[in-house]
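Slide 14.
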Amino acid sequence: SDGTLLATGSYDGFARIWTKDGNLASTLGQHKGPIFALKWNKKGNFILSAGVDKTTIIWDAHTGEAKQQFPFHSAPALDVDWQSNNTFASCSTDMCIHVCKLGQDRPVKTFQGHTNEVNAIKWDPTGSLLASCSDDMTLKWSPTGPGTNNPNANLMLASASFDSTVRLWDVERGVCIHTLTRHQEPVYSVAFSPDGRHLASGSFDKCVHIWNTQTGVLVHSYRGTGGIFEVCWNATGDKVGASASDGSVSLTSCLFMDTARNYFPGVRRS
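Slide 15: predicted structure.
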């Protein structure tokens, strides 16, 4: 939670934790195949992973031990996102979304409705809305239960697409506010800064773009050494991390929108 450690997942089936100096702190091994998604919880004591082996795993970030493995999907798990420090959602090529909780041996809730694999999911900051996107080319979002009181007038949703665009949506009205078109190849990942003022996007054109969410203006760009699979912000919103197809992980400073970078070349695809 203090931004001093970085977690990565790889096609070699291992998750790794790195120090801010680029040194390997620990290796997490229990998945039987590539890891597609990895997320810290807000407290910083657990790491959540999703794998091609159809499972999700909660790891103890301090000991590197698996706390619980969740075998609920019938096909590869593609993305995960924490709702709270011990509850999360996962999505899969099986077209299902499961909400799971540490210590429980079955999903708390299951969402169905997409007609193709579900690529990404994201809770809103309050944990009351869950958004999903799919190869059926739709986005869906839903309150977690009937009667949910969610004053979401200013809630914004970002989507990334293989059509090379990034779109910002007004959740309440269900309309597109901005279409961001500077990427040249499919966009695999988007992430809001902690204060919501900026959006990072990563594409297979090797570029990470930083956008102003209110105006849709491109404010900073960084070109990596491989196609970008994932982007994320640190807790203070002054750095963006990106993982690339050549096995590298890069950090770029956004505090002054400069291009100071540190590299972690130790993560390689098998």
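Speaker note: The domain at 1-130 is CATH 2.130.10.10 (Methylamine Dehydrogenase; Chain H).
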